[in-house]
Fold:
Amino acid sequence: MTDVAGTGFTTLDRVYSGGVKVSEALGGSCGNVLISLAMLGWSVVPLLSLGCDAAGSSLVEEFRQAGADTGYIWRRAGVSSPILAQLLDVEAALHSFSKVCPQTGEALPRYQPVSNEDVEAAQSVLAECRVFYADRLSPSILLAMESAATGAAVIFFEPSRIGERELFDRALRLCTVLKWSSEQLPVELTDRIVDADTVAVVTHGARGLEIFAHGQQRCCACAPAMAVRDSCGAGDMLSVGIIDWLLGSSWSGTDRFEMDYFLAGVTAGQRLAAANCACVGARGVFRERGRDGVRRILDGSSG
Structure:
Protein backbone atom coordinates (compact mmCIF):
# COMPACT_ATOMS: atom_id res chain seq x y z
CA MET A 1 0.00 0.00 0.00
CA THR A 2 0.95 3.62 -0.48
CA ASP A 3 1.32 5.35 2.88
CA VAL A 4 0.47 8.87 1.70
CA ALA A 5 -0.95 10.27 -1.51
CA GLY A 6 -1.59 13.96 -1.78
CA THR A 7 -2.18 16.95 -3.97
CA GLY A 8 -2.32 20.69 -3.57
CA PHE A 9 -0.14 23.75 -3.27
CA THR A 10 3.38 22.82 -4.33
CA THR A 11 5.70 25.52 -5.64
CA LEU A 12 9.31 26.40 -6.19
CA ASP A 13 10.08 28.82 -3.36
CA ARG A 14 12.61 31.49 -4.24
CA VAL A 15 13.94 32.93 -1.00
CA TYR A 16 15.14 36.54 -0.93
CA SER A 17 16.95 38.29 1.90
CA GLY A 18 17.91 41.94 1.64
CA GLY A 19 16.61 42.00 -1.91
CA VAL A 20 18.98 39.22 -3.01
CA LYS A 21 17.97 35.68 -3.91
CA VAL A 22 19.71 33.38 -1.44
CA SER A 23 18.18 30.01 -2.29
CA GLU A 24 15.35 28.18 -3.98
CA ALA A 25 13.68 24.93 -3.00
CA LEU A 26 10.44 23.01 -3.13
CA GLY A 27 7.75 24.71 -1.06
CA GLY A 28 4.03 25.12 -0.52
CA SER A 29 2.18 23.37 2.29
CA CYS A 30 1.38 20.26 0.27
CA GLY A 31 4.92 20.08 -1.09
CA ASN A 32 6.49 20.54 2.35
CA VAL A 33 4.29 17.93 4.00
CA LEU A 34 4.69 15.28 1.31
CA ILE A 35 8.44 15.63 0.85
CA SER A 36 9.00 15.64 4.63
CA LEU A 37 7.05 12.41 5.03
CA ALA A 38 9.06 10.87 2.18
CA MET A 39 12.29 11.88 3.92
CA LEU A 40 11.01 10.14 7.06
CA GLY A 41 10.80 6.90 5.08
CA TRP A 42 7.10 6.66 4.28
CA SER A 43 5.97 5.74 0.76
CA VAL A 44 4.64 8.98 -0.71
CA VAL A 45 2.94 9.67 -4.04
CA PRO A 46 2.43 13.33 -5.02
CA LEU A 47 -0.33 13.99 -7.58
CA LEU A 48 0.69 17.22 -9.30
CA SER A 49 0.42 19.13 -12.55
CA LEU A 50 3.65 20.90 -13.56
CA GLY A 51 5.21 22.41 -16.64
CA CYS A 52 8.02 21.15 -18.83
CA ASP A 53 10.37 23.82 -17.53
CA ALA A 54 13.38 24.21 -15.25
CA ALA A 55 11.22 24.88 -12.18
CA GLY A 56 9.24 21.69 -12.80
CA SER A 57 12.43 19.67 -13.24
CA SER A 58 13.76 21.03 -9.95
CA LEU A 59 10.57 20.10 -8.08
CA VAL A 60 10.45 16.59 -9.51
CA GLU A 61 14.13 16.03 -8.69
CA GLU A 62 13.67 17.12 -5.07
CA PHE A 63 10.80 14.67 -4.65
CA ARG A 64 12.83 11.92 -6.30
CA GLN A 65 15.84 12.50 -4.05
CA ALA A 66 13.58 12.38 -1.00
CA GLY A 67 12.32 8.95 -2.05
CA ALA A 68 8.84 9.90 -3.27
CA ASP A 69 7.20 8.19 -6.24
CA THR A 70 7.20 10.81 -9.03
CA GLY A 71 5.21 8.68 -11.48
CA TYR A 72 2.04 10.71 -10.88
CA ILE A 73 3.53 14.15 -11.46
CA TRP A 74 2.22 15.17 -14.86
CA ARG A 75 4.29 17.64 -16.88
CA ARG A 76 2.79 19.49 -19.78
CA ALA A 77 4.10 21.71 -22.53
CA GLY A 78 2.70 25.21 -22.46
CA VAL A 79 2.23 25.11 -18.66
CA SER A 80 4.48 27.05 -16.28
CA SER A 81 5.37 25.41 -12.96
CA PRO A 82 4.34 27.53 -9.94
CA ILE A 83 6.90 29.80 -8.32
CA LEU A 84 6.53 31.84 -5.12
CA ALA A 85 8.87 34.52 -3.75
CA GLN A 86 9.60 34.34 -0.02
CA LEU A 87 10.95 37.52 1.56
CA LEU A 88 12.95 36.67 4.67
CA ASP A 89 14.17 38.92 7.49
CA VAL A 90 16.29 36.64 9.69
CA GLU A 91 17.13 39.36 12.21
CA ALA A 92 13.45 40.03 12.95
CA ALA A 93 12.42 36.39 12.37
CA LEU A 94 9.80 37.57 9.89
CA HIS A 95 8.83 36.33 6.45
CA SER A 96 6.29 37.17 3.81
CA PHE A 97 5.35 35.84 0.40
CA SER A 98 4.89 37.51 -2.95
CA LYS A 99 3.40 36.39 -6.26
CA VAL A 100 5.59 38.99 -7.98
CA CYS A 101 9.32 38.66 -8.57
CA PRO A 102 11.00 41.25 -6.31
CA GLN A 103 13.83 41.73 -8.82
CA THR A 104 11.89 42.09 -12.08
CA GLY A 105 8.41 43.07 -10.90
CA GLU A 106 6.90 40.38 -13.13
CA ALA A 107 4.05 38.13 -11.99
CA LEU A 108 5.22 34.65 -11.08
CA PRO A 109 3.53 31.50 -12.45
CA ARG A 110 0.57 30.33 -10.35
CA TYR A 111 -0.39 26.91 -9.03
CA GLN A 112 -2.77 24.81 -11.13
CA PRO A 113 -4.64 21.76 -9.74
CA VAL A 114 -4.56 18.33 -11.32
CA SER A 115 -7.28 17.52 -13.85
CA ASN A 116 -10.10 14.98 -13.66
CA GLU A 117 -8.15 12.88 -16.15
CA ASP A 118 -5.12 12.94 -13.84
CA VAL A 119 -7.26 11.74 -10.94
CA GLU A 120 -8.69 8.93 -13.05
CA ALA A 121 -5.17 7.86 -13.98
CA ALA A 122 -4.25 7.71 -10.27
CA GLN A 123 -7.23 5.60 -9.15
CA SER A 124 -5.07 2.62 -8.21
CA VAL A 125 -3.01 4.79 -5.86
CA LEU A 126 -6.02 6.54 -4.37
CA ALA A 127 -7.80 3.24 -3.74
CA GLU A 128 -4.96 1.84 -1.65
CA CYS A 129 -3.38 4.85 0.13
CA ARG A 130 -3.56 4.97 3.92
CA VAL A 131 -3.64 8.78 4.16
CA PHE A 132 -4.75 11.31 1.57
CA TYR A 133 -3.56 14.89 2.08
CA ALA A 134 -4.87 18.05 0.39
CA ASP A 135 -4.51 21.73 1.17
CA ARG A 136 -6.39 23.10 -1.83
CA LEU A 137 -9.80 22.31 -3.29
CA SER A 138 -11.14 22.01 -6.83
CA PRO A 139 -13.66 19.66 -8.45
CA SER A 140 -10.81 17.34 -9.43
CA ILE A 141 -9.28 17.34 -5.94
CA LEU A 142 -12.70 16.60 -4.44
CA LEU A 143 -12.92 13.65 -6.84
CA ALA A 144 -9.57 12.42 -5.54
CA MET A 145 -10.78 12.82 -1.94
CA GLU A 146 -13.89 10.77 -2.70
CA SER A 147 -11.84 8.00 -4.30
CA ALA A 148 -9.45 7.85 -1.34
CA ALA A 149 -12.33 7.90 1.16
CA THR A 150 -13.97 4.98 -0.66
CA GLY A 151 -10.75 3.07 -0.09
CA ALA A 152 -10.95 3.83 3.67
CA ALA A 153 -8.03 6.27 3.70
CA VAL A 154 -7.67 8.89 6.41
CA ILE A 155 -8.57 12.18 4.70
CA PHE A 156 -6.37 14.99 6.03
CA PHE A 157 -7.68 18.32 4.72
CA GLU A 158 -5.85 21.57 5.47
CA PRO A 159 -7.71 24.43 3.74
CA SER A 160 -6.48 28.01 3.65
CA ARG A 161 -9.75 29.40 2.25
CA ILE A 162 -13.36 28.31 1.83
CA GLY A 163 -13.95 29.25 -1.81
CA GLU A 164 -17.02 27.64 -3.38
CA ARG A 165 -19.19 26.72 -0.41
CA GLU A 166 -20.95 23.70 -1.91
CA LEU A 167 -17.60 22.18 -2.89
CA PHE A 168 -16.16 23.00 0.52
CA ASP A 169 -19.11 21.46 2.39
CA ARG A 170 -18.77 18.26 0.36
CA ALA A 171 -15.09 18.12 1.32
CA LEU A 172 -15.96 18.61 5.00
CA ARG A 173 -18.17 15.53 4.89
CA LEU A 174 -15.20 13.44 3.76
CA CYS A 175 -12.67 14.68 6.32
CA THR A 176 -11.13 12.50 8.98
CA VAL A 177 -8.81 15.26 10.18
CA LEU A 178 -9.57 18.89 9.36
CA LYS A 179 -6.76 21.33 10.23
CA TRP A 180 -6.74 25.07 9.71
CA SER A 181 -5.26 28.29 11.02
CA SER A 182 -7.48 30.80 12.82
CA GLU A 183 -5.38 33.49 11.11
CA GLN A 184 -6.87 32.35 7.77
CA LEU A 185 -10.27 30.85 8.61
CA PRO A 186 -12.62 31.47 11.57
CA VAL A 187 -12.68 29.12 14.55
CA GLU A 188 -16.47 28.95 14.02
CA LEU A 189 -15.78 26.65 11.08
CA THR A 190 -16.23 23.87 13.63
CA ASP A 191 -19.98 24.63 13.52
CA ARG A 192 -20.09 23.47 9.90
CA ILE A 193 -18.57 20.05 10.53
CA VAL A 194 -21.44 17.62 10.06
CA ASP A 195 -19.57 14.33 10.50
CA ALA A 196 -19.31 13.57 14.22
CA ASP A 197 -16.19 11.49 13.57
CA THR A 198 -14.18 14.39 12.14
CA VAL A 199 -11.27 15.59 14.28
CA ALA A 200 -10.70 19.37 13.97
CA VAL A 201 -7.33 20.94 14.75
CA VAL A 202 -7.35 24.75 14.90
CA THR A 203 -3.98 26.49 15.20
CA HIS A 204 -3.55 29.93 16.75
CA GLY A 205 0.10 30.68 15.98
CA ALA A 206 2.18 31.39 19.08
CA ARG A 207 -0.94 30.91 21.25
CA GLY A 208 -1.04 27.17 20.57
CA LEU A 209 -3.94 25.17 19.20
CA GLU A 210 -7.30 23.60 19.95
CA ILE A 211 -8.65 20.13 19.17
CA PHE A 212 -12.38 19.49 18.72
CA ALA A 213 -13.70 15.95 18.44
CA HIS A 214 -16.73 13.95 19.57
CA GLY A 215 -18.01 16.78 21.74
CA GLN A 216 -14.62 17.19 23.41
CA GLN A 217 -12.33 20.19 23.31
CA ARG A 218 -8.69 20.39 24.30
CA CYS A 219 -6.34 23.40 24.29
CA CYS A 220 -2.61 22.88 23.80
CA ALA A 221 0.10 25.48 24.35
CA CYS A 222 2.96 25.64 21.87
CA ALA A 223 6.05 23.56 22.49
CA PRO A 224 8.91 25.85 23.60
CA ALA A 225 11.37 26.81 20.85
CA MET A 226 15.07 27.13 21.67
CA ALA A 227 15.22 30.05 19.25
CA VAL A 228 13.01 31.66 16.62
CA ARG A 229 14.87 32.41 13.39
CA ASP A 230 12.12 31.60 10.85
CA SER A 231 8.57 30.48 11.60
CA CYS A 232 7.93 29.56 7.95
CA GLY A 233 6.88 25.93 7.73
CA ALA A 234 5.91 25.56 11.39
CA GLY A 235 2.31 24.69 10.51
CA ASP A 236 3.51 22.20 7.89
CA MET A 237 5.76 20.49 10.43
CA LEU A 238 2.79 20.17 12.78
CA SER A 239 0.91 18.36 10.00
CA VAL A 240 3.95 16.15 9.33
CA GLY A 241 4.05 15.14 12.99
CA ILE A 242 0.36 14.29 13.11
CA ILE A 243 0.43 12.28 9.88
CA ASP A 244 3.63 10.50 10.91
CA TRP A 245 1.87 9.50 14.12
CA LEU A 246 -1.25 8.39 12.21
CA LEU A 247 0.86 6.12 10.02
CA GLY A 248 2.90 4.77 12.91
CA SER A 249 -0.14 4.11 15.08
CA SER A 250 -2.23 2.55 12.28
CA TRP A 251 -5.21 4.62 13.46
CA SER A 252 -7.76 4.41 10.66
CA GLY A 253 -10.20 7.12 11.67
CA THR A 254 -12.91 4.50 12.03
CA ASP A 255 -11.43 3.41 15.36
CA ARG A 256 -12.91 4.70 18.60
CA PHE A 257 -11.46 8.18 19.14
CA GLU A 258 -9.51 8.85 22.33
CA MET A 259 -8.36 12.42 22.88
CA ASP A 260 -5.27 11.53 24.92
CA TYR A 261 -4.21 9.03 22.26
CA PHE A 262 -4.54 11.57 19.43
CA LEU A 263 -2.67 14.16 21.51
CA ALA A 264 0.47 12.06 21.15
CA GLY A 265 0.56 12.90 17.45
CA VAL A 266 -0.26 16.56 18.03
CA THR A 267 2.48 17.05 20.61
CA ALA A 268 4.99 15.26 18.35
CA GLY A 269 4.09 17.71 15.59
CA GLN A 270 4.37 20.65 17.98
CA ARG A 271 7.88 19.55 18.97
CA LEU A 272 8.90 19.38 15.33
CA ALA A 273 7.34 22.78 14.58
CA ALA A 274 9.22 24.37 17.50
CA ALA A 275 12.52 22.84 16.40
CA ASN A 276 11.95 24.05 12.84
CA CYS A 277 11.48 27.62 14.06
CA ALA A 278 15.12 27.61 15.18
CA CYS A 279 16.22 26.92 11.59
CA VAL A 280 15.95 28.96 8.40
CA GLY A 281 13.64 27.54 5.76
CA ALA A 282 10.37 25.64 5.69
CA ARG A 283 12.24 22.36 6.25
CA GLY A 284 15.33 23.75 7.93
CA VAL A 285 15.16 21.18 10.72
CA PHE A 286 15.62 18.37 8.18
CA ARG A 287 18.66 20.13 6.73
CA GLU A 288 20.27 20.76 10.12
CA ARG A 289 19.24 17.62 12.03
CA GLY A 290 18.82 15.05 9.25
CA ARG A 291 16.26 12.25 9.15
CA ASP A 292 17.48 10.57 12.35
CA GLY A 293 17.51 13.86 14.25
CA VAL A 294 13.97 14.66 13.13
CA ARG A 295 12.85 11.17 14.13
CA ARG A 296 14.28 11.72 17.63
CA ILE A 297 12.36 15.00 17.91
CA LEU A 298 9.12 13.29 16.87
CA ASP A 299 9.73 10.45 19.32
CA GLY A 300 10.44 12.91 22.14
CA SER A 301 14.00 11.70 22.75
CA SER A 302 15.58 14.96 21.52
CA GLY A 303 14.63 18.60 22.05
